Amino acid sequence: MFENTYIQQRIQKANALRELGLNPYRNDSKVDLHNDEFLNKFAYIKDLDLDEKKDENIKVWIKGRVKFLRIMGKASFIKIEDSNALLQVYFSQNELGDLFKILKKNLEVGDIVNVCGFPFVTKTGELSLHAIEFKLLTKSIVPLPEKFHGLSDVELRYRQRYLDLIVNQEVKETFVVRSQVISLMRKFFESKGFLEVETPMLHPIPGGANARPFITHHNALNVERYLRIAPELYLKRLVVGGFEAVFEINRNFRNEGIDHSHNPEFSMIEFYWAYHTYDDLIELSKELFYFLLESLNLSKQLPFGDMIIDFTDFNIIAYKDSLTKIGGIPKDIVDNKEKLENFLIHNNIKLDKELSYDKLLNEAFDNFVESKLINPTFITQYPIEISPLARRNDIDGMIADRFELFIGGREIANGFSELNDPIDQLNRFLAQVAEKEKGDEEAQYMDEDFVWALGHGMPPTAGQGIGIDRLVMLLTNNKSIKDVILFPAMKPVTENYNNIHEENAYKTQ
Fewest CB within 10 angstroms: 76, 145, 245, 490, which? Predict the structure, then answer.
């Protein structure tokens, strides 16, 4: 490791600093202002009516990583970047003496520095810091990507996210927005009287969604455990216990495929609201989106790839109606199981086995409707078979009081009036178990403890989950889920780890 020529040269410089009595990894930094604070606080100096625009009476410590370096004879300019902004620093032999000569020989792009000085404006009109003290805090021995080519290798960006954040400012901004979104969602639900709670991530029975779980072993208890696929059944237990409005910002794990909108480890917010219906959730969802857009200073006409999503236009359409009005499938085909199956086969939709009518409808929806739902659209009245935890509609028992919200051709949220009839829930679990025995790996398990909890009485309740990763994709105009997850799931590196990193180090030159 660290064997290529460029890295060795940097290591030699770190050793040279040690020989001069200078620790290349110091731990005595001082900070008075962030770079953006410096630029804002001293912007007035640009307007001073002086030959030399500066204020030598001010002494400020700033810090950051060197992103640009221009060495001259007895003076140098560098640009250093902290988490907020880029700031130019001027230093010379006049102020630093012998230290300037040491820096001139050993300072490089990538190093982390701590500088004290006064604000001034250069001849080109740039507000800068004139250094009077200078510390090299951390010597970077691996070169950063070369300025004009940057870090464009997508595979490398995801595997070395730290490097991606160093060199791609827009990536850093995406994750700042992600953090803001989570904070704002917490603020929104707390303002509505919801209580934030925490539920287990290791489950004795995977439940709350149709998905394949990850399995692990609990050594102390000597039992199998499943990584959480959803917190739903635990949150509803809390509603039974008397918490009438709860939410959890949670990590879920589903042992499934990876693509542009799926990652096996992902973030959601789930919330449950007693004495409310799924119609109330639809209105709450609209309010949440307007709150996020306003708080993030985003337009209600939001670009997403080559689309413009209009958040002033929330649509509501029933599931079967969407198949005809949006999917273009004739109604007589939608209403007939045999015709629908033949239609799907004729359109090259692969059906691995004989499917029930409700599951054929789901295949039709996935293939002919979902990708066309660009503006926010609530699809309602889902088939009951594919909604094992949702309440039956009072008028038509074959549909659920459920919706899914689609934006930009992708599901963003799933909500419904909760099933609180323990006998109906028991029978639906039994049906799921039967499907699992037939080979459906995503069918849900029987959870007798949850059914028993419902037996104590859960008030009429509405619940919803929103995918945070997909929401951030939407708000930051990113088409891949890997661009909004700091450390997405990746295939293991098959080549020698050292060789890959050594090769990347050469690419930076």
Answer: 490
